Amino acid sequence: METTNHIIDEIYRKYEALGQDPEVYLEGLKHAKPITYWDYIEVDTLLSLQKPRTDIPDENVFIMYHQINELLFKMILSEIGQVAFRENPDKRFFTDRLGRISRYFDVLASSFTIMMDGMEKAQYMKFRNTLTPASGFQSAQYRMIEIGSTDFKRLIDARYRDNYDPGAPWADKFAKVYWQAAGYDPVSRQKSLTLRLFEERYLKAFMDMAETYREKNLWARFTALPAEDQQDSDLVAAMRHYDHTVNIRWVMAHYHAAEKYLDSDGETEAATGGSDWKKYMHPRYQKRIFYPDLWSAEELEGWGISNID
Predict the structure, then answer these.
(1) pLDDT tens digit string along 206-220?
(2) Structural domain that includes position 17
């Protein structure tokens, strides 16, 4: 353990290098209060963030579950950023960070039982209409995870993917991104209020991120590794696991939760955002695949239909 004098010397060097008087910082430390768990974690603030629109008890479950998702999304984006902006990430670093990301998504994919088994359908059906036009489709962090994970072509609607122009303006590319399909009114075929509000709030940020990650997304960083590292079985397995977890396990967990609440007695309820959620969500339709080069032709053909380990 470092001696007291050595620690003090390091403190002096740290603040002198910043052009600061170390004595001022030491004086401040002398008067500072001890940190507590509840202050450090901001527990009181965290517990005050639930603002239900009704008095129905299970609405709180719904809110807190989605807030937990957003915290996990933030953790995932942090790991993606470490790979994107690290100078020359090696195979070990890449594999380690992918392992972290996948563990977060494993938690997400397995956590839908909180909603499926922990929220009464009758209660949900009472408060859900108060959420219109809000939709989980509007999770900006999730869209950012997708942008940071793969070449943008892989996020284009399957109908337009073959004619994708990598040199087109970002506005044109985003007009054909797959999640646009969930944002059109099924009758008028105009952009829904859900999509309009989402784009007004986040589209510029999405385009900026897409430009920044053009050559820094996980796939771009993977293909920049030495050829022998790209063949590493552990790294390839990590890439495949992440792809499968995000684009099949997580999506299907979400799909089955929606199925429980919105599909019964021979009738299918529309999502709060108005989309045809069955076709939008099921991976067999859009075949959202981050890393198709790492899957066999048979696996690609059965994407979202057959089981892939």
Answers:
(1) 999 999 999 999 999
(2) 4-32
